[in-house]
Every structure is written in structure tokens, then in C-alpha cells.
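We examine the record.

___
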Amino acid sequence: MDFQYSTEQDEFRAVLRGFLQRPSAEEYDAALWQRLCGELELPGLHIPAEYGGAGATLVDTAIACTELGRALAPVPFATNAFAVEAILRLGDEEQRKELLADLLSGAQIAAFGAWGPGAASGATVVAERRDGHTLLTGTCTPVLHGHVADVFVVPAVASLGEITAFLVRVDAPGLTVERLPSFDITRPLARLRLSQVPADALRAGRPGGLLPVVDIARVLLAAEMLGGAEACLEMAVQYARQRTQFDRPIGSFQAVKHMCAEMLVEIDATRAAVMFAAMSASSGEELEIAAPLAKAQAADTFVQCAESAIQIHGGIAFTWEHRLHRYFRRAKTTQALFGSSAQHRALLADRAGL
């Protein structure tokens, strides 16, 4: 396996990084999202061309996630991408053609409603059949960027205890979308309350159900956290070169050097794990092992880098005006998605038969 990015991928990364350097809003930047969809066609990178995508690979989408994470871009890319993945893998041909074009173009936004440790094997929503229709009842939380979504992918317990993914429209009767306070001010949350809400099942479920969808989500989240960790290291190194103490840059002190070196080592390990996981997307067995490994490694690395960068910056890093607190908030909240790092390592051990 070649752990090298192609020239085209490096150019794509540079273009996207430059694009995201422009100032943006804190919670949700609708204008930026429309530009990412329209000018760069970001949501459809690895989606087949027949559904309006670019037909690239998951590695390309992981590169996009890394740059979005580096910039803390306040756009619903993650939740939309995971919902699109569910529709692509679990929906039938009619559902794909009906939904994907609008979701890739930015005309509509989808939100993924499964983020807990049992996202692929447990659900807090129950589905029942009544008069030939499926109705959902329960609570689904947290839903990233749920307040701006037009359609939701919601896992629910169907007949015989099977977990099935359902599509719910934002204007469906019985659905209430509540904004929730979020520790990460760049990624708002919502709660879905469903009371006999009409829904459509994704009708072409593959073996494993939501498991491969959640594993893809883990890989892309790991890529996003990699970008955030890289940004923390860059800010720490830049500050360590500029800030002086005792007439010398603080970067010349051994303790600061060690912190930066440890950050770099963990970032390099995370980059290799993310790249391997993204390349393994076509192999179900390899992805089952690589996805939880990459998520756990990236989560711990991002938290470590955010904490170390804050320590290197000293008092200024604790001010509201400095950007580092936003990276720390993103690190801690993303670490918890789909379960903690300990839960992901336990999942890895279980899947590896240890």
C-alpha cells in the first residue's frame, strides 16, 4: 500500500486550504456551505458520477475533512456526508436518485441521527407499522447541525428488534427539532422528538446494516481531527518562535521542544492510521479493524495537541478572543462521538478477536 498522496490530491488540498482561510461565522455559515457545494462540489467527492458525484475515492473525502477540521469550518459537512453514505449504501435506486442530487448540490441538507456508542446496534427510536405506514416514536440526540437539516437519517428498532435506517422529512407531522447548547460553538446540536412521525425505510439495506456506514463516519471524523491537531501544532510552533522569555524564544526551552515533538509524533501516527483506514474502505474486513483504530488514535491525538498548545501559549490561550479554545472544544466533543476512545479500543479488540 502506497502511503503517498498524488500530485492532484496535494493540489486539491492546497486549493481547499486557501479557500478556507477566509473569515467565517461561528455556528453555521450558509454562504460558505453553498460555495463548498457549488464551486468545489465537496459533498460528492467519492460519490459515483451517476448520482451527481465526482467519482473519486474516500481518500479524497478524507483530505477534505482534514482541511475542514484544520479550519474548524462551521458547515454541516460531516453530518451531511454520513447521511449521504447511508442513503448510498442502504437506499434503493429510486431513493438514491430522488435524494442524492439535492444533497450533493447543497439544495438540501441531510443530518445523521446516530452518534452514540451503539450507533449501529442500538436505537432510542421505535418503528411501528400502522395502516400500511411506518411511524417513528422516540428521541434522537445529538444531531449535528440538526436545526438546518431538511431530511434526517434516523435509526430505529423495527420488527424483531432489527435496527433499520429511516428517512424523516423536517416538515413531517409529529417531528420537533430542538436546538441544544453545544460545548463546541462551531458545531451546533439538536434533539429530534418524534411522536408517530411518518418515515420511509432505506429499502436496499446491505449486510451489516449501519455498521459500514458508521465505520466510514469514524474514518472521516478521524481525518477531521487530524486537521485540527495539525492546526494546534502549527499555532504552538509559531507562538514558541515569537514569544520570548529571558531574552530568548520559548521554543528554545527543552520542555517546549518536547511538547512540540510529542505532538508531531502523534500526528504522524494519526496521519498513517487515517490514510490506511481511508484506503481500506473497499474492504469490509480491513475497514472493521482500521475504523475504530483511526478514530481512537485521532481523538486522543487531537485532545493532546489542543491541551499542549494551550499550555505553550500560556495565559493568552485562556482568553475568549484566542482561537485555541475552539480547537479544544472541537477535540473534546468529537472525541465522544460514537463512543469514547476506550470504547473504540474495546470495539477494536472485539473485532480482532482479542
Notes: The longest strand covers residues 189-201. DSSP finds ten helices and nine strands in the chain.
